[in-house]
């Protein structure tokens, strides 16, 4: 418990919230545990350099947070590149990383970190009543990176919510997702990792995968990068389960598709390893190219700060841009809304992104506050 207490006190010290008594307690603990001094000094250096760097002032807290996590991950895993979903993190460092990450997440503009008392219906949310429930919220225009209590790394896309218990003390590790997230799950053969969405449940032991489940979108997507995941429809525990292999993507249609044809199709899917499943009312599986890097794949490029679109209609792209840039896009012309685009946004702001689209299509836009009005030219 001592290392966890040191991490907690150090996080409070860095945020300026530590009392005189807590500072004295921290000093005494560090004297008794000199091995912890190295890690705390290391984080202090990153924290201060992030605050003093001209590109990382307080008004750019998301970049500051990314600076801390990138350097922490690089030092502890030996990886100096951008966050790589396939890079393991040494278990010794997880506790320190967790507290600093939680502290940084709490101060990022647009990211809210809650601890909800256990007054929630366990049958509804699948969490034990005895455990508190954490909720991490990323608003539009923001993204979050965090570590769960077991060391699993999560990248949370904009306009998303992730719920998880204070600890994973039971026989399985469960989270609930609304929105989009990339998971790099720490392997634990005795405790499977469960991701619950509004339509499907995903079960894994140790793997990396992306889940997209926005409430207002008609489909839920699960894309496997490595390992193996098992998917089942909610409220149908006896139905055949679908196994995904690397570079496979499952799309679940939320629309009601009940009937014998659906049931038969799901049984057929369970035995498939590759190929595209055609004409399914609710579920389809496609095999993705193995020659595309995670940073260039539409399903996972957002983790690397890229908004990739391949043949999207302007209306479909607008839904992604609204979350990405924290704007609302209003179309004055259905013809313009049906234009199709292919490309990628990386460092552009909303004006630059729209101007780039204008290079391939004729339309006019006007921005008033957070509202973007798009019309024929």
What does this structure look like?
The chain has about 375 residues and is of the alpha+beta class. About 30% of the residues lie in helices and about 30% in strands. The protein has ten helices and 19 strands. It has helices at about 1-15, 20-30, 35-50, 60-75, 95-105, 120-125, 260-270, 315-325, 335, 350-360; strands at about 110-115, 135-140, 145, 155, 160-165, 175-185, 195, 200-205, 210-215, 220-225, 230-235, 240-245, 250-255, 285, 305-315, 330, 340-345, 365-370, 370-375. Strands 1, 2, 3, 4, 5, 6, 7, 8, 9, 10, 11, 12, 13 and 14 form a 14-stranded mixed sheet that branches. Strands 16-19-18 form a three-stranded mixed sheet. Strands 15-17 form a two-stranded antiparallel sheet. A hairpin with an 8-residue loop joins β11 (about 230-235) and β12 (about 240-245). α1 packs parallel to α5 (about 95-105). It starts with a helix and ends with a strand. About 35% of the residues are buried.
Coarse structural class: alpha+beta
Number of strands: 19
Low-confidence stretches: 46-65, 67-111, 115-131, 257-280
Q: Give the ordered list of helices and strands.
A: HHHHHEHEEEEEEEEEEEEHEEHEHEHEE
**Count of helical regions:** 10
| Mean pLDDT over all positions | 74
Query: How far from one another are the termini?
Result: 65 Å
Taking the sheet with the most strands, its summary is: 14 strands, mixed
Strand content: 25-35%
